[in-house]
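fyi for ur records
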Amino acid sequence: MSEKKLTGIEKRMANLKPIKKGEVKNPNGRPRLLRSILKDQGYTMVDIHCTIKGMLYMTRDELEKFFESEQATVLEKMVGSAIISDMEKGQLVNFDSLVSRVWGRPKENVELTGKDGEAIKLDVSDDQALAVMEAGIKSKKHNLEHKD
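which gave:
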């Protein structure tokens, strides 16, 4: 008899094996974020931002000398290698991430219009508008209180 060919989902389902009691599938746990590792080494977010900001203004030669220096910290070497890597590959992936970490993402605006480009008309009572405004103010206060 010929064996039945399994489809994609059937293969995945057949491959699933339940964990036995006491078995650990990931003994090392989830990898730690770089930010957590750097904080353990004594870096503050201000230290990290200042380092990134300063290194983004360096020339390639300065970055390479800095990277080769035995006095450079792990943070400085990592930021330098990320910038140099982007330069060599002609990419902006690491650069974009570093810039947005220090200066934030630019504000994005979205314009909504109604039919044929006309303004959208809303029928909202004063009570409904007041409730929406109060919810927005509460949300803004909460975000400010719990900011990094």
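The mean pLDDT is 81. thats all i got for now
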